[in-house]
From TrEMBL:
InterPro entries: WD40/YVTN_repeat-like_dom_sf, WD40_repeat_dom_sf, WD40_rpt, WDR62. This is Translation initiation factor beta propellor-like domain-containing protein. SMART domains: WD40. It comes from the Eukaryota.
Amino acid sequence: MQCPAGTSRTIGKREPNWLQVEVSIIYLPDRCCGNCIPCVPGDMSAPVFQVTLEKVLGITTVSSSGLTSDPNTGLIAYPAGSVVVLLHPLRNQQNHILNGSKKPFTAVAFSHDGKHLATGESGHRPCVRVWEVRGSQVAEVQSYKHGVSCVAFSSNSGYIVSVGYQHDMTVSVWDWRKGSIVASNKVSSEVLSVSFSQDSSYFITAGNRHVKFWYLDASREQQVYGTVPLIGRSGLLNDHKTSVFCGVACGRGLVASNTYCVTSSGLLCLFNRVRYLEAWVDLKTSSASCLAVSEDFIFCGCADGVIRVFSPDRLQYLTTLQRPHLLGAEQG
């Protein structure tokens, strides 16, 4: 309850990348009505400020690793500076996770049961953190110097893979419940996306002239105490060695052995179980940025809000999803 003698106002704070944060500030003065709940009884010698984050306008992600959704509930998560916005799209309602270190978030990923969210951040000695969706932090690990470009949960939610910025040149797998890194190795290319296989036995990193398969089972077989070196094998790119692979997703169901990538130039690529680039199709767009794969469909995010849909077995074109109406436009 607010003192009638005080004031309440909503202010907008602008930050880089066109991010605007709306907060409500309630000011309770030292001289007040004397009757309201905040004023009696108590010490009225100093003003009281109460700040509540109501809404965040804007997004600071720079790649597909900065946007994720929970397939169980439809909840969407994305970074906005040092805040992760949890958006309920049907209710148009926001919840927020605030980074106590004040470092900006750079990557987000839900666990497959939707109960936890992994985040990466940038800045001096950045951390990979795990949060309950309700907002409390449950784990963290620090192994980078500059920033974290990608994070992903394994399919059984037991492990998290994280990739550092290009200057860190490190990919790590850690047991987040124990807070320990179990496997790690160097990666020389800029990595933009990462995806775990359905059985959690390997994961794939994709980026600038880079598609690489990392095998956890083979790494565990090494007789090494402590953190073991990850074993990785490069994808066979053929004529696409100069492409930027900006999105990657492992197959599901009957095509679980396949791996799908999109390039920034607008190609959808299929890698088979032996890492060979077996097929590709032109998305008929100026650029592509991301993809999502289910047992029945491949959804490719393209320029101008276009989404192309393909079948995962033969890369057969199925349809194009309509772009949403412009904000404020009347729908006939």
